[in-house]
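Dear colleague,

As promised, here are the two records you asked about, laid out in our usual form so they can be pasted straight into your sheet.

NAME FIELD: protein one
SEQUENCE, THEN STRUCTURE:
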Amino acid sequence: MSGCLDHVECHRPEWCEIGEKRNAVASIAAGVLFFAGWWIMIDAAAVYPHQKDLLHAYHTCGVVSTLAFFMVNAVSAGQVRGDSYTTGCIGQTGARIWLFIGFLLAFAALIGSCWILFAAYVVNQDKDRDPYPGVAIFMQNFLIFVGGLVFKFGRTEELWE
């Protein structure tokens, strides 16, 4: 899974070589994206505490996106390929199903947040209603989604051995 772009040539400057620090850089970048997503949503919830501005049910997308973040990153590429963890209740097939459900939840949360943004804040725009809560909901889910992808595909398992 993590080797899908290993054959792509990208010449970087000498000072930008990360080498064995790849896992640390990817983990920090994913953590910053995850943190930024939740920070934006917490800011929107603090600025707009009333139901008429920001429905509390809209937080469900962020919770589902966070759950998907953990589900996607709970299985390693070796488990999906069948290199490691071939025994147990469900084995390789279970790892693939778990990863598929995680990505399905991540995309569903992202699409749901996009729907909330446009249906509740862009199309039905009142003069008194600020669109920032809708943008915050979408940005939260987008940043968590990108953070999950960075954490899943930005790290390499060769450095673990």
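NAME FIELD: protein two
SEQUENCE, THEN STRUCTURE:
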Amino acid sequence: MVGIMRSVLVLCCVSAVLCQQPRYETLKDGRQKITLKSANLTEEEQLSQHMPGTLKCDACRIIAFQLMTRFNTEHKKRKSVIAKRGRLAESDVLDIIESICKDDNEVFDNVGVKAINGQTHLSGPGLETENFPGMMQGGGKWPGRLKEMCSMYTGDIGEEEIYKAFLKRINLEDFLCWGIDEMAYCNTVKKQMKLNKKGKNEL
């Protein structure tokens, strides 16, 4: 048993726990110890039915990524329609957005929270944090919070306006998250964490 214990990494974290950036320590016998400290969620992050204010920028970027991805996919599938009409039918646009924001789907099921450098961030497709070292806690209220926020964007801005921005080759993250609208939540974040491909943080 001792031999087995010595042959594996020592992990100070379990899969259901949020963790910060790993701290690496080389032991005397050459093994590497990885310590992942658990993060503390605020009461709002734990209990609220709505997206916590501190995570709305991350959430907006995830939503924008999903919309961009689906529009690009449908344009590639329907090249003849796009070549003829220059755009998707309005009913198709509504169906696409509804399939992301309203339907009982799995679009946001692989999104969760991860503690990075002592701060809680969303982690999932469209964010650099997805590849940042650490454990992620997904499921729970996060998919529902994202769908609610997605519906807020389409309700306040409108499906057609979002699609028109896409047709103008405007990055939907810039349009939704960094614009001048009161729902452009990334403008309220004083310092945005940017992570390079190696997972090192840069402010």
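A couple of things worth noting about protein two: The beta strands are 10-11, 23-26, 32-35, 112-116, 119-123, 137-138, 194-195, 201-202. The CA atoms of residues 31 and 110 lie 32 Å apart.

Best,
R.
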